[in-house]
Design brief:
Radius of gyration: 15 Å
Helix content: 10-25%
Strand order of the largest sheet: 7-4-3-2-1-8-9
Oligomer: single chain
Number of strands: 9
Distance between the termini: 25 Å
Shape: globular
Order of helices and strands: EEEHEEEHEHEHHE
Length: 181
């Protein structure tokens, strides 16, 4: 059995340095850097077409996904038609559909990023030891994502520092052992 350490990888510059210890969790298309992923986190429906679902053991998605960064009519049921990967759901504050689901009992308030969802979900699942790659205070991306123009939505550079600091605050709040590399 694997240790309870989690290596969490996003699409930033340091993703290329990732050394996996314990479970591997990835954010959005960062999963494409690896042959096997324990936990894949995404919030946007179009990301599904950019990843290899065959490499993923568990998919963590909202009950109602976003599309082009807006609320969409896509749900976890649409994703179930595409894969047999076990799906774990949660509710986003932007959810507009009245979905009666025994799934997704985790409800997130205002969400800044999939990184925030990943940390929160992993912590709620009992993980407290993290090595984090591909998250930084600046807007740089791993060269593979830059080459493929898979670099998000060109946010203001302050957003990256805010996202980074939000992650640090979550990790501190839950008294986690962590290292952002």
């Amino acid at each position: 059995m694997k240790s309870s350490k989690v290596t969490l990888v996003a699409k930033g510059k340091t993703a290329e340095n990732a050394v996996v210890e314990g479970y591997l969790a990835t954010i959005n298309t960062a999963s494409n850097l690896f042959k096997e992923v324990d936990f894949e986190f995404l919030n946007d429906y179009e990301t599904i077409n950019k990843i290899n679902l065959g490499d993923i053991k568990n998919l963590i998605i909202p009950i109602q996904l976003h599309s082009n960064e807006s609320v969409s009519n896509y749900t976890y049921k649409d994703v179930l038609k595409l894969t047999k990967v076990p799906i774990h759901t949660h509710k986003l504050f932007t959810q507009t559909m009245n979905l009666d689901s025994k799934y997704g009992n985790v409800c997130f308030g205002e969400v800044l990023s999939t990184y925030q969802i990943a940390l929160s979900w992993l912590i709620m699942s009992g993980f407290r030891d993290f090595k984090i790659y591909g998250v930084g205070k600046d807007s740089g991306y791993h060269k593979e994502f830059e080459k493929n123009d898979d670099v998000g939505n060109y946010r203001d550079s302050n957003w990256y520092a805010w996202n980074y600091n939000l992650g640090v605050n979550i990790l501190k709040k839950y008294d986690c052992d962590w290292e952002i590399l």
